[in-house]
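User: Run a structure prediction on this.
Assistant: Running it now.
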Amino acid sequence: MKHFFLLISLFVFSLHSNAQPPLEDKFPDYSFQNYQMSFERVKNAFAASEYNIRKMFEDKKIKYPCKNILFRALKASNEFELWGRNGIDDTFVLIKNYKICALSGILGPKRWEGDKQVPEGFYFISDFKPNSAYHLSMLINYPNYSDLVIGNKEHPGGDIYIHGACMTVGCLPMTDQLIEEIYTIGLLSRINGQLNIPIHVYPLRYTQKGLDYIGKEYKDEIEKQQFWVNLKRAFDYFEATHKILPVMYDEKGNYAF
């Protein structure tokens, strides 16, 4: 009987998994590339950034163009990390650490529309917007299953982007120069086969100093503390292995590893 419930649980987890689907043989995706490059600002961004991007990856012994990248955001320190690896069996290598130029809200996940919070959790880049009002934008797939279960089910909010123009209400803004480089990196990875580019958003770096801070400043916010403990499992695993776990959920919306 125990084995039966274990199999059922694993089946439920798999239904809500955000694991990257297997790549097909149609890459490079020239139709997607041609559409993106039909916009002047994308062409200009590519021309301005491509040489430096190639050197960044080659200096880290990562094949170019890289189609195995990971973004990590750390809200408390305004850090936005770019990681890359040669293949899915390899470990990730830190390529560059960018600076988020502004953040709205406080530490803690986004739970409803209009709370001005930057989401926390495990997401993917779901769209590239070459004609953005904020120069260039990459859409984050908020709300995910966890957000829909735990947050406001009718009005969870949305339209969370990594974008330029250095202004925000709940997004991850960069300067125009930085978003041109980040957008080009994401674009190259998508064109060459990475259909879902993961982005992990944490409240802070889980060092002893960071843990002491949230333990003191948020000691009475039990739901946040429990949520952050849940995120910490994935953070600790990545710090120890430089690999990522498939993103799955339990029926309560917790991340299940």
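The first strand starts at residue 69 and ends at 74.
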